[in-house]
């Protein structure tokens, strides 16, 4: 039975899916907003929310966990802990927003922009 198995597969194996989501996480942290498909943005949202919540408490354990989730990216980890997380210190959750974008294309994918809330 498929109880609680709602993760999108994107037509990829597990390692390719993890690499895709890690690269999207890194891009979102670096650029503060990215354009992607709606399905990818919806899959990315819980991951980035968890990392921002974890980075609000600056401890060696949380830095190690965030660095591991980002695949060993020290520049992105530093930006997350020093610039992004302090903006959300008094916010309990909901750090990102997804805005649907109309992108005329030949395929049926819906485009979306995911960004941090100001």
UniProtKB/TrEMBL annotation:
The keyword ATP-binding is assigned to this record: no
Single GO MF descriptor: structural constituent of ribosome
Regions that span the bilayer: none
Keywords: Ribonucleoprotein, Ribosomal protein
PROSITE patterns reported in the protein's UniProt record: RIBOSOMAL_L17 (PS01167)
InterPro entries hit by this protein: Ribosomal_bL17, Ribosomal_bL17_CS, Ribosomal_bL17_sf
GO biological-process terms attached to the record: translation
Family annotation (Pfam families): Ribosomal_L17 (PF01196)
Keyword Coiled coil: no
Superkingdom: Bacteria
Cellular-component GO terms for this entry: cytosolic large ribosomal subunit
Protein family: Belongs to the bacterial ribosomal protein bL17 family.
Record protein name field: 50S ribosomal protein L17
Organism of origin: Candidatus Kaiserbacteria bacterium RIFCSPLOWO2_01_FULL_51_21
């Amino acid at each position: 039975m498929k109880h609680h198995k709602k993760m999108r597969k994107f037509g990829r194996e597990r390692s390719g899916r993890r690499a895709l989501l890690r690269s999207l996480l890194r891009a979102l942290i670096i650029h503060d907003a990215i354009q992607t498909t709606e399905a990818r943005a919806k899959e990315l949202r819980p991951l980035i929310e968890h990392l921002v919540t974890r980075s609000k408490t600056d401890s060696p354990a949380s830095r190690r966990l965030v660095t591991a989730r980002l695949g060993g990216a020290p520049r992105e980890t530093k930006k997350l802990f020093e610039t992004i997380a302090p903006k959300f210190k008094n916010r309990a959750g909901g750090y990102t927003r997804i805005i649907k974008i109309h992108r005329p294309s030949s395929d049926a994918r819906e485009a979306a922009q995911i960004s941090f809330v100001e």
